[in-house]
Amino acid sequence: MALRLTHVASGVYRLSTRYTNWYLLEAGGRITVLDAGLPGDWSDFCSALSQLGRDPTDVDAVLITHHHPDHAGNAERLRSSGARVLSHPADGAEVRGARQLKRRDHLRYLWHPWYFVYMLHLRANGVTRVPAVAELDEMADGEVLDVPGSPRVVHAPGHTAGSCALFLEDRSLLFSGDALVTLDMTRGRTGPQIIHGPVTEDPDMARQSLETLAATNAATVLPGHGEPWPHGVQSAVEIARHNG
Fold it and tell me: Which domains does the chain have, with CATH numbers?
């Protein structure tokens, strides 16, 4: 499944498949990668960089919104090419491979054709072969990161303990990771929502974190799964609350 490169705003690009999004911030000829896809995306990722006249050595930083392997898949490979990798410390042990992912009951969701096909896609693209990140830096809630694009960290726990969004205040763009999505991968349901099912550690906390995202008052939400939401984070949060 080819990775598509889409121009979102000045210096901002979306990398997407049917299932997953990750993003590039370009400034001063250097690149920040927001989440890092799956190992199977690597070749298409390099092609996308080539379209921008760049290659992996132009990546200064990789920001991991949360520790799940479909978001951290190429982080170590990019670190080996010279990039710093950053995550919230509450997810750091999983990203470094020092703590195993919690085993959750996925079996009862596999009856749903959408989720079953998604799991096949993950396995075919190397989700079980994601390497641990050997050296990891931390990013803190409220910090404006000294990386290309200078996003601000918004800690939004629930999906994972260290789940974060990244906010570009000058362009009013909120990269919401999996704290707020427009496609629930467990059911294939579209529209603004939190993700249900076995991949969300604390659904109640995830709902509470919606208020933190709403407080950014971002004009556009760019989620980890699903289409961008250009109608403001306030409306997205209101719909997500209604969707449970």
Answer: 4-242 (3.60.15.10)
